[in-house]
Amino acid sequence: MPTLRHHVVAAILAASLAGLAAGAAQSADRRAPERFRVRLDTTKGAIVIDCTRAWAPHGVDRFYTLVTSGYYDDAAFFR
Hints:
Elements: H1 4-22, E1 35-42, E2 45-52, H2 57-68
Helix pairs in contact: 1-2
């Protein structure tokens, strides 16, 4: 059974893919560190996403670029 965590991760990935489509004309994604963490503060508490570049280099690079550029700042996610 999907949990709130699954829904949040799915929403983040969907937003990342949307950012991929919107950012196709932008310069190449920045290379992410081999491992990094992103903390999301929600109304139900914090969620920490642990990203490992070796598992999905292109996806992690894109997510890193979006996070460091402020793409998710003050973004609201709904289930």
